[in-house]
Every structure is written in C-alpha cells, then in structure tokens.
Amino acid sequence: MRLTVFGATGGIGREVVRQALDAGHQVTAVVRDPARLPVTGEGLEVFRADLSDPAAVRPTVAGRDAVLSGLGARSRKDAGIATRLTRTVLGAVEAEGVRRLLVVSAAPVGPQPEGAGLLERGVLGAVSLALRDVYADLREMEAEVAGSATDWTVVRPPRLQDKPVTGRYRTVVGGFPGKGRLIGRADVAHAMLALVADPAALKQGVGVAY
Fold first, then answer.
1. Contact at 8 Å (CB) between 197 and 99?
2. Distance (Å, rounded) from C-alpha 68 to C-alpha 71?
3. What DSSP state is assigned to residue 27?
4. Cα 194–35–2 angle (5° rounding)?
C-alpha cells in the first residue's frame, strides 16, 4: 500500500513508519523537522511541512491508499493542537479524494470499558479531570473526523508505554477492553496498520489495550 503518516516523529507515528516499511509499504512521512525522524529505509519519502495550509500538504496524500495520523498534544499546554492540525489533514485528504483515514485519540474520550466497575470508572474520571483540556481537544478532533467524507477510524489507547511491539493486545470496535489500562506505542501503531484493511472499523472508534 501507499501510506502517508502525519506526526511521524512522535512515539506512535514513528512506529507506524517503521512497521509499515518493514511490511513492504511505500510510506510518506510528513514532519516539521526531518532530523527528528530516525527511521530510514527503502520506500520512505520524507516531506517537510508545518501543517498550516491544507493546499501545501495535498501532494503528500494524493494517490495514497490510506492516511494515518499520530498528531496530538504532548501536554496540557498543547491542548488544541490535535483539532487544529487534523483539520489541515482533513482538508488535504478530502481535496484529493483519499478515503481511508486513521487517527489516534485516547481511551477516556470514548465509551466506558466493558464491565467497568466503580473503581475503574473513578480512575478514568480522575484522569479525565486532570487532562480535561487535552481530552476536550480530542473530542473536538473526533467530531471533525466523524463529520468528514472519509472512511475514518479513531483509535483510542489508554496510558502509553515505550516498549517493543508484541502484536498481543485486545481491540473493541465501538468500545474499550475491560481493565485495559496500558499499551505500548509500538502496539498502537501495529493496531492502526492492521485496522487499515478492516471493514468492521470503518467510521468507528476502536479501543485498544493489553
């Protein structure tokens, strides 16, 4: 497949690029600073852009089979960035007629986990309160993606870890795995690539966790 990855220097985006190249895909990585992308390989094209103008990034998505985005805030002070940058991506994707789009959100933005008890709901509530600005941004981003003309999928992980890919995790379309508190960034990337061709994930939020 021909894939474009936004947020390619972030923890999840970098893993999407790496694993996609390992699988033999052609990858365009869209970054602000190419020096921050340590991934190399045959089939990789690096495109420098600041995502301020949809027209400027249209060439990065033209003719692609899917676009995957790891864009998002790294702290509360970055709240608003996910919606703003994703809006640029949507403008470019829709202008070029690309159908498949996958973006990363977060578990607290979606439904309660399957069979969540009082303690689990309380923990999620505390996390949501502490990061309310970030999650408000992600909710707005999700709404814009859901209102787009794309065949979208929103991937919602819980707390992220830096660990090697395992390929062993749970996914729930339209929900979230019970007691799913952690997942590695590499496995979120693995799930995103697996979901590209999954028709059950079209226009759905997908919870992913160990």
1. no
2. 9
3. E
4. 30
Enter the pTM of the model.
0.91
- 93 Cβ contact list (under 8 Å, min separation 6): 61, 67, 101, 148, 150
- The CATH number of residue 162's host domain is 3.40.50.720
pLDDT tens string 97-140: 999 999 999 999 998 876 666 555 555 555 555 568 999 999 99
Q: How far apart are CA 14 and CA 1, in angstroms?
A: 17
Enumerate the β-bridge partners of residue 170: 209
Pairing of strands 170-173, 100-104: unpaired
The 10s digit of each residue's pLDDT in 174-189 is 999 998 999 999 999 9
Contact, 49 vs 56, CB < 8 A?
Answer: yes
**Residue 161 belongs to what domain range?**
2-209
pLDDT in tens, 137-154: 999 999 999 999 999 999
Phi-psi group of 23: left, alpha or beta (phi > 0 → left; psi -120 to 50 → alpha; rest → beta): alpha
Number of structural domains in the chain: 1
